[in-house]
Amino acid sequence: MQPFTTVTGIAVPLDRADVDTDQIIPKQFLKRVERTGFGEFLFFDWAKEPGWELPANPILVAGENFGCGSSREHAPWGLQDYGFQAIVAPSFADIFYSNCTKIGLLPVVLSAEDCHSLARAGEGEIDLEAQEVRFAGEQVAFAIDHEIRHRLLGGLDDIALTLQLSDAIAGYERERERSGPLTTAL
Q1: Please, what's the largest Cα pairwise distance for the chain?
Q2: Between helices 94-101 and 74-82, what is the axis angle to 10°?
Q3: What's the pLDDT score for residue 166?
């Protein structure tokens, strides 16, 4: 996972609320387990609609409750594979939000008004270190859990987080060897 500091670029609006993970990546494309190659199937059914256009840019601005529905990991994989680095919305489904942060895709919660303003501006900058979104002369702060922020700034997936504890794990294992086998009372 790549470290995330800032992302600057075009903010693509997706003015739809309650976007389900089945709409992001339909079920017929879930037969693979690798994390790449899903971008071409992003919003597959909507892409058939006349006038549909979703340019691949770094920032997606979405409506309320983005990523609701099933807990499939394929939805964040597809968004990232398509080229998005951050998704800005008034709210996210909890599991979707978590799945994004585990792969380096930054979900940012802003008010609906700020989301509309960012979409109208057409471009912006998201600074994870400062916890700010900047667009059209505005600076809007956003909140993010300290541990998630640490994970994203450091580019740390679950394995990398565990490896940060290597010394503590090795110390524990040495102590367990010295203590002998665990016994249980019957």
Answers
A1: 71
A2: 50
A3: 85
Contact (Cβ atoms closer than 8 angstroms) between residue 60 and residue 86 = yes
* Residues 7-29 pLDDT 10s: 999 999 999 999 999 999 999 99
**Residues constituting the chain:** 186
- Give residue 33's identity as a one-letter amino acid code: V
Its pTM stands at: 0.87
Which tokens in the block code for residue 176? 């367990």
Rounded Cα distance, 21 and 30, in Å: 11
Helices (H), 40-179: 74-82, 94-101, 112-121, 146-154, 158-163, 166-179
DSSP at 36? S
Where the chain has pLDDT below 70, the residues are: 182-186
Phi, psi angle pair for 175, to nearest 5°: -65, -40
Whole-number Å distance between alpha carbons of 143 and 107: 11
